[in-house]
Design brief:
Chain lengths: 232, 254
């Protein structure tokens, strides 16, 4: 009895993740390849970049729906950093952001068959999922009072965003479009989207009536959409 | 246009950015169900917010992709919409496994109580803490039996990254699950396995797993399951921590 007890099973480094990591490396290269392709068309023109990236991801998600791990790997390479970035922007805490990012990507795996290309791009589908999850996490985890204290202590997020969105063509484009908004529009969008605040919280932070904030948010997104050239 | 409808429509921007409280969201979604125009506008605005999100991209932390790929390998995918509607219970995670018959798990549950009972008999139940332990073991054993015998009990099984196999029997009506593992890698005395429930309701430690015996760990009962919870396992300092600090070795969507 003691003999069996002392013989703790010793499994060497787990074969299952190793196997999937191996598969990952193969398609990793594929993912990088398509990244380069994406960048190429980015230089070619904004419109074709959006369309090219979107349809590539949509096709991969179609394969993921059929249980293709290599396609899931490619989806990860393409959109994983964006998911993690937006989740972390809202949640701040690294460990929690990692958790939520895992949840989001696992949800993409699970619900790939639910993606409907007729109702928007694959990027928008995944990013909507990611943002919603991040916001739900901060709102359920944080006590209301704690949250209010953080709002009071919030620095102006715009500079931070500008800083974060430097140094790539895409980011430059976003920066330029954010700059084309009025100040209230821009702050409404950055506080809501990057901080995860409700329009009511944004209104109290900016000292503007809620009705105004609601309208500014809508106007701002319409202007952004047109400026970014993502309108269908 | 009625004032109410107009008011609802101005919420499209806030809604597209999730900048809306839960009650407002519900109200707006009722409006949305009958407003094709709103749905189209929101879809187009979300193309813009997606670009805002992409502009915040950051390199993924090391190992995150591997963990998700491993979790995906044992996560059942949802069938396309129509089929899912016909089978609401298909919202499962791992496939049912035949490797661990439910009876074996039940036996393990009884074994935990029996082990304490055997000690109590050998040493005589004169010790208060021993009695307490026995009561606890019996209570836990009853809880375990309640989960295992629940009509909606579902068993799932899958590998733990780092070694071993975890088996979970879950009952949504009991809001509880029973966790057992086989062949978990032995940890140094200063560390132990900690089980977590993670979901919209927050991250709650379930507790430290007891040391394995004959390669078997548990059973451990986790109660208070909430909608959207995941079950996770990490290796933590032996005393346990309030939040997971180590990489997930298991992350099961419940």
């Amino acid at each position: 009895m003691t003999a069996t007890g002392s013989q703790e099973p010793r499994n060497p480094a787990r074969p299952a993740p190793a196997a999937s990591a191996g598969a990952g490396q193969g398609s990793n290269r594929a993912g990088q390849g398509s990244n380069r392709a994406g960048q190429g068309s980015n230089r070619a023109g904004q419109g074709s970049d959006r369309a090219g990236q979107g349809s590539g991801l949509a096709a991969q998600i179609g394969l993921v729906a059929r249980g293709d791990p290599a396609a899931f790997d490619a989806v990860f390479e393409q959109i994983g950093p964006s998911v993690f970035g937006v989740v972390k922007r809202v949640i701040r805490d690294s460990a929690q952001s990692e958790e939520v990012t895992q949840e989001v990507l696992l949800e993409v795996w699970r619900n790939a068959a639910k993606f409907d290309a007729g109702r928007g791009s694959a990027t928008a589908w995944v990013m909507t999922l990611a943002h919603r999850r991040a916001v739900d996490r901060v709102r359920s985890v944080q006590k209301e009072s704690e949250r209010e204290r953080r709002i009071a202590a919030a620095d102006i997020p715009y500079d931070e965003v500008v800083e974060a969105v430097e140094s790539s063509l895409e980011r430059e484009r976003v920066r330029r479009c954010l700059n084309s908004l009025t100040e209230v529009q821009r702050e409404s969008v950055t506080l809501a989207y990057y901080r995860g605040y409700t329009y009511g919280q944004v209104a109290s932070l900016l000292g503007v009536p809620t009705g105004t904030v609601k309208t500014r948010m809508r106007d701002a997104l319409i202007r952004l959409r047109d400026c970014l050239g993502v309108a269908e | 246009m009625k004032p109410g409808k107009r008011d609802a429509h101005t919420l499209v921007g806030a809604y597209a950015m999730d900048a809306i409280s839960a009650p407002d969201r519900e109200r707006f979604e009722r409006h949305l169900a009958g407003c094709e125009e709103c749905a189209r506008e929101i879809a187009s605005l979300r193309e813009a917010t997606a670009v805002l999100g992409a502009a915040a991209a950051e390199p993924l932390p090391a190992g995150l992709k591997e963990r998700v790929m491993a979790a995906a390998a044992m996560t059942r995918q949802q069938p396309p919409a129509d089929e899912a509607k016909a089978k609401p219970n298909a919202r499962g995670s791992w496939p049912r496994s035949l490797a661990w018959p439910g009876r074996l798990v039940l036996a393990a549950g009884a074994a935990a109580a029996a082990a304490v009972l055997a000690l109590a008999v050998v040493f005589g139940v004169t010790n208060g803490s021993m009695r307490q332990q026995l009561d606890q073991a019996q209570a836990s054993s009853q809880q375990i039996a309640a989960v295992l015998t629940a009509q909606d009990a579902v068993m799932t099984s899958g590998p733990v990254s780092g070694g071993g196999t975890a088996t979970i029997v879950m009952s949504h009506t009991r809001h509880a699950l029973v966790f057992t593992a086989q062949g978990l890698r032995a940890l140094p005395a200063s560390r132990g396995y900690e089980l977590w429930l993670i979901g919209p309701a927050g991250t709650r430690p379930v507790g430290m797993l007891p040391a394995g015996s004959h390669g078997m760990t548990g059973p451990v009962i986790a109660s208070g399951l909430r909608q959207g919870d995941h079950l996770a396992l990490t290796a933590e300092p032996a005393g346990g921590t309030a939040r997971p600090t180590a990489p997930m070795m298991l992350d099961v969507d419940l």
